[in-house]
Amino acid sequence: KLRSFRAGKGNIRVPAAGKLVQRYGVEAKNETSKGITIVTRANAQVTSPYDAEVLFTGPFMEYGKVIIMRHSDGFHTLLAGITKIDVSVGDFLLEGEPIGAMGDRETNNRLYMEIRADNQPIDPAKWIRGLNK
Questions:
Q1: HEC string of 110-126?
Q2: CA dist 5 → 19, 43, 77 (Å)
Q3: Are 36 and 26 in contact (CB under 8 A)?
Q4: What percent of the chain stands above pLDDT 70?
């Protein structure tokens, strides 16, 4: 059984170290951002932000390689921009468990993260530890 995602509010782990370059709700490319974007170092490790089950891995439209995770309480996390995915559909993950890696270049290592509650995007800043500063 997965731990309560709702109970983790304010303590969800950022999936990779880096610099926050785009916040939720900011206008970009003629649409409003439904998540956040973090620029990481080359080969940065990507970890599970919270306990989850992997629902999808692979390429998806313009997002590139994507991991979609189901948490408890009707929450999901989408991570995109990962170069190497190390998990499979059906895997159960613990918070902080390695799930992939970013590319081997400093440029274009942009990790996109979206948190959804009941299939609607929500502002990750209220959920991720240290992001609401």
A1: EEEEEEEECCEEECHHH
A2: 24, 28, 11
A3: no
A4: 98
Our measurement of the distance from residue 37's CA atom to the centroid of its chain's CA atoms, rounded to an integer in Å, reads 9
- CA angle 103/107/108 to nearest 5° reads 70
If you average pLDDT over residues 41-54, what whole number do you get? 96
The predicted pLDDT at position 67 comes to: 98
Residue 15: both structure tokens together: 């999936």
State pTM to two decimals: 0.93
The answer to whether the beta carbons of residues 117 and 123 sit under 8 Å apart is no
CA distance 20 to 2: 28
